[in-house]
Amino acid sequence: MYVLRRPPHTAEELPRDDFRGSLLNSGAGDRKRIGLHALRVIGTSTLQLCDLLLNSAPLFHKGVVVSPVRALVEMLLYSKRTLWSMLSIPEFAGPVVDKLPDFPPLSRSVWFRRLGGGIVFNSYRLATWGAQVVWDAPVYVYHYLFPTLDNEVKLPTAESLRTVLHEIESDIAKLEKDGNEKREMAEMDYGPDRAYFALKKNCIEKRVEDAARSKRGLCKQKYEYKFCAFGEVKQDQTKLGKWDGWYGGEDKGLPSSGKVDYTRMRYSQGDKCYNGPKRSVLLHLECGERDEILSVDEPSTCVYEMAVRSPLACNAEVYAKAQEDVAFWTRKQLQ
């Protein structure tokens, strides 16, 4: 798309087009514009001078510019209008007020417009216009200092900057979340030599038959169990518990040997049972070729025990015990 561009300004055109153009061109509209700005400056300066004479500087309160002189006059005019409105109520003096003659404004009188061949009327109109400009000077100052912002107007540049800012804030939040997760991972106990770290991001699922119902002779029912190491244990949509550390004896204390049992995990604060405690799980880790859930039992109400097999549980102690078992059965066979 071809866009027409204005030619560059010459040295002679620049003074006429910038802020000095009104002075250099000296047209009727320019003179009016200069007079308007001058009267506004005079009005603002006059009101400030009155404030100083009254030992009252311009009051900036809650974003409003207030002139004591204008405030006083406005209050008197408001009182006059209020009083006249009250007198116009029929219950007060409405009939009397209605009988008063209605005098037309002076500026609309034919004789006033013809007075002095129209010179008096023109002078009056210019004087009232100048007085109005001086009177409205504080209002212009207020709107200049405290412009009204239209929230519905959205500049493309500002909108793109908001989008970039939102993306930066999202990236910062994501980095903080990743940092907190890595900090928690670094502080968590993953067993000897962090052997069970590989289980953190893996969840083991299996559909297991309810052993408690089978023992009672009830109809068989299977549940989908999901075990997430260092996370949660679920039975279908029911949370059985969340990670609460390694087993260390009763009341979360250490056993008499002073060592934590890294073959048993403790999960607590699960969903509350009906008229019972919150669910909890004691999970037993066993050495095996692959990750799988072996069995699930409920020895008491809402207290579960789960057996999970994993090659990560095959530690040095398990290997030493296996060697002892092999040696024992070898001796048995030789005898």
TrEMBL record:
Keywords: Coiled coil, Disulfide bond, Signal
Any one Gene Ontology BP term: N-glycan processing
Nucleotide-binding is among the record's keywords: no
Domain of life: Eukaryota
Entry GO CC: glucosidase II complex
Gene3D superfamilies in UniProt: Mannose-6-phosphate receptor binding domain
Stored InterPro entries: Gtb1-like, Man6P_isomerase_rcpt-bd_dom_sf, MRH_dom, PRKCSH
PROSITE patterns, A to Z: MRH (PS51914)
Coiled coil: 158-185
Domain MRH: 201-316
Pfam families: PRKCSH_1
The UniProt record lists the keyword Disulfide bond: yes
UniProt-listed PANTHER family: GLUCOSIDASE 2 SUBUNIT BETA, N-LINKED OLIGOSACCHARIDE PROCESSING
Protein name: MRH domain-containing protein
